[in-house]
Amino acid sequence: MMRKTILEKFGFSVGCSILMGVFCLAAMSESVPPLEEYKDSVKIAAVQMVIEEEFLQEHDSVDALIPYMERAQQDQVDLLVFPEYLLGNFKIPDPLTDKLCAEANKHNLNVIVGGWEYLPGEEFSHPPKEGTFSNTGLVVSREGKIVGKHRKMHPACGAKSPYDWPPEENEVSEILMKLGEEPTVVDLDFGRIGLLTCYDGYFFPTFEIPSLKGAEILVWINGRGGAIEDYIVKTASFMTCTHVVATNQSMGAGTMICAYPANVVENVTKPGEAYISSTLDLQFLRDQRKNNRMFHQRRPNAYKDLVKEWEPWEAYPFIEPFRYPESE
């Protein structure tokens, strides 16, 4: 009798512990809003281009985008993605962003393009004043409305260092801009997308967090020399269970469309202007995301160290850090 009583008590205790654990996990879980609009597939076009200064002396930056909008409309594209920086200086609203919205509506397109957003109450200046601007990617809907924007979260700086770090004293670069505080997720008429900009893509949480919030397509806009790394795009696609679209300016390369899992279906391998498009299967992707084992088996409590401030360079006190030569 004593043995049975102990087992009964033990069983009751274990059962209560399991129930409490399930309750705690449920209490900790975050709600992801269901899609209100969705389609079974989406046709995406990505543009690799740059706008020459001579063109901007007689036109504005939106004029350079219109030929690609016209082509995308003929191709019945749902989402047209341009590179980082391309729009130039703008405010929200101003005549340039109003024109961009009007052209997106005219051509029946969702459009993404990056530029320099000057913050409310701030004036354009060169060099820019610290904290007055952001590197911002705009999301414009078919209805001609700005429905989302992503402010770059990690500044590209220290270009004269072999490590791109640290920034130089008094350096004029993105180190001066107001940074975005979180990855961006936007719902469009075909599904949910996440945005990140150039150097953001070297920090994996900027891919992962939008996916966890329900983004099905990750859009990574760039504006740099060299090529966008296909191994980053493929890894992001597989690890986050998403399709990934990347764009670059035409002094570089690597504009690409990657279908889950890690299947690059279009890739611009050389510098120069280019336009690519592909239809991505969203129904298949949603089946995968509904049942993805990495989603169901995540252990957030085991990853708490990720949000601590670590200084891994302190492991090497015997190595002198890079320093810029003293100016004469």
Question: What do these coordinates show?
Answer:
This protein has helices at about 1-30, 55, 60-75, 95-105, 205-210, 230-240, 280-290, 295, and strands at about 40-50, 80, 90, 110-120, 135-140, 145-150, 185, 190-195, 215-220, 225, 245, 250-255, 255-260, 265, 275-280. With about 325 residues, the chain is α/β, with parallel strands linked by helices. The chain has a single domain (about 40-290), classed as Carbon-nitrogen hydrolase (Nitrilase/N-carbamoyl-D-aminoacid amidohydrolase). The strands form 3 sheets. Strands 1, 2, 3, 4, 5, 6 and 15 form a 7-stranded mixed β-sheet that branches. Helix 3 (about 60-75) runs parallel beside helix 4 (about 95-105).
**Strand tally:** 15
Order of SSEs = HEHHEEHEEEEEHEEHEEEEEHH
Task: Summarize the main sheet.
Answer: 7 strands, mixed
Shape: globular
The CATH H-level homologous superfamily: Carbon-nitrogen hydrolase
Main CATH class: Alpha Beta
Which quaternary structure do these chains form?
A: single chain
Domain count, please report it: 1
The rounded Rg comes to 23 Å
